[in-house]
């Protein structure tokens, strides 16, 4: 008997390692982006994604959209916000998705105390079971939450980043390891990698 193909959600869970609300947030964001842009998973650099956090949801975005660090079409801005920008090179359209954290992670003192006990390793077996049940229920709600309740989507003007380039590697004069030329520095007239480079500053 042949196994049924895995759903994108199952693939995202497998890639991430476990199911959690954060992963569900990224999954919904990616679904909404693909729907609005009328795009499918990016085989190359047809899509560009800019994420403003490094939370669990980014893994789901990579799985669904095909935007990855390795292909150069996933860009990380360390701003700590639930904001995601997606651009389609084929249609020259882009959108910004903002997820209100208070809507997807509403505060509930009782549930917050339970979560704290679980994360602290002090929860009982019964509390652990309750926590898993609550978390599974919340994941399902996130996966099926109406878009207007889940996030704000706006079409934006977007300056597409250049496509990923290939660079020559140069050998570091200190450690002997090779580094891509744009990341090398010059020290005593020789190329060195960033690990071996000693920056000079007078506070300017």
Number of strands: 9
Q: Quickly count the helices.
A: 7
User: What is the 3D form?
Assistant: globular
Helix content: 25-40%
Structural class per helix/strand content? alpha+beta
Q: Bin the strand percentage.
A: 15-25%
Reported for the largest beta sheet, the result is: 5 strands, mixed
Please identify, by name, the CATH architecture of the largest domain.
Answer: 2-Layer Sandwich
- The oligomeric state is single chain
CATH class of the largest domain reads Alpha Beta
Report the span from N to C terminus: 68 Å
- Number of separate domains: 2
Radius of gyration: 22 Å
Low-confidence stretches: none
InterPro entries: FmdE, FmdEsu_dom, tRNA_methyltr_O, Znf_DskA_TraR
Protein name: FmdE, Molybdenum formylmethanofuran dehydrogenase operon
Pfam families: FmdE, zf-dskA_traR
Keywords: Metal-binding, Zinc, Zinc-finger
Explain what you see:
There is one protein chain. With 204 residues, the protein is an alpha+beta fold. Helices cover 37% and strands 18% of the residues. The chain has two domains: 8-155, 60s Ribosomal Protein L30, Chain: A, CATH 3.30.1330; 166-204, Wheat Germ Agglutinin (Isolectin 2), domain 1 (2-Layer Sandwich). The strands form three sheets. It has a five-stranded mixed beta sheet. Strands 6-7 form a two-stranded antiparallel sheet. It is globular, with a radius of gyration of 22 Å. Keywords: Metal-binding, Zinc, Zinc-finger. Residues 15-152 form the Formylmethanofuran dehydrogenase subunit E domain. Residues 169-202 form the Zinc finger DksA/TraR C4-type domain. One of its GO terms (molecular function) is zinc ion binding.
